Amino acid sequence: MLxxxxxxxxRFPVEYRGSACPCxxxxxxxxxxxxxxxxxxxxxxxxxxxASLARGRVGGEVAASGVWRFRExxxxxxxxxxxxxxxxxxxxxREAVSRFAGVADLGLKHEGQNPTGSFKDRGMTVAVSHAxxxxxxxxxxxxxxxxxxxxxxxxxxxxxxxxxxxPAGRVAAGKLAQAVAYGARTLMVRGDFDDCLRxxxxxADELGVTLxxxxxxxxxxxxxxxxxxxxxxxxxxxxxxxxVPAGNLGNTSAFGKALVEARDLGLIDRLPRIAAIxxxxxxxxxxxxxxxxxxxxxxxAETVATAIRIGDPASHDRAVRSIRDTRxxxxxxxxxxILAAKAIIDAAGIGCEPASAASVAGVRKLVRAGTIRPGxxxxxxxxxxxxxxxxxxxxxxxxxGRGRHSPTEIPAELRAVARxxxxx
Length: 424
Ligand code: F0G
Prior knowledge:
alpha/beta, 4-stranded parallel beta sheet, 6-stranded mixed beta sheet, 15 helices, binds ligand F0G
């Protein structure tokens, strides 16, 4: 295994806790597993089988983790492995969502079912374990909410102090409550996410604190397991497409890396195409895609999907590589399209937060545009839990329209219940 700069190729020791090279490029982890693809598949599948037995057993967190089952491709070696445990998330299939999206073979990989309610736990278990193994004394992140919730939980697990910077007034209450509850020192910055990240990078350098945003290469390693686990769940048969909401572009980067590594190792024989979906009000990557990535943009972001309200994505370059490597596409969806998709996913009894629904809204759009064919297989990733952003649910249902139903207050009398039931 080696760590090197994705821009200039400079090498770093595995113990290095920084995220960027002096040249400004972000760091990349390269693995050289000694086992063959068949041997790796066997060991991954054996661990998956053992996972359910290990769940709940004292000290069974690592064995039960849907992340650490792939450890040879993440962070090999000895030392603390801090799991909660995470991953092992289901792939749902729901007729109503398939019909809405316009593809019969649609799987919904629900990352909201991780311990803190988002996919961030997969990256955080690896990044916090790496930080703890190599002498970190404190950790920090900027966040639109989920990263801070996850980092706070894993920092608590590691016994490390945690510093969180979030945009004031722009983070869903559930996420902020988690960061506070898990014990992070939380700063509400008068600015947007992009300001928070800039400030956090400067503060981390200045104060010698380990930065745990997705520019940290170990976060990317952990998040690769969304794709690895999905491939495993499908018997190592890749779908035609993987749709993912795109904000700071950590996932888009991780997915491309996971797929290329899996193909190069021989775990899969062809690459699915990545569809990265942005909110229209926060779509600098989509804009850049339309120039064939000749130009890079930064915008003032605005969207109801606060998790992806990001105007200057930090992992732009590595996400470009992912889209190119997988012959992927980038699309954007409006807030109305996001909320319509969310309502369908919610009403199927699954639920997700607004940003997550961008993946399904994007599939629908790409099917209508003829980019995804109705007969192709698609896995859309739902990135966060429905309870992360309860405010948006209540707001959506408080306005009139089909499928909307806000709660009705009644006196504590049977007559009132009966009247309500008859009327509805
Ligand atoms: N979906 C959810 C629910 C998110 O929280 C995020 C990012 C994304 C999608 C976008 O993923 O950044 O890898 O492209 N949330 C970060 C945070 C920025 O601070 O919680 P990405």
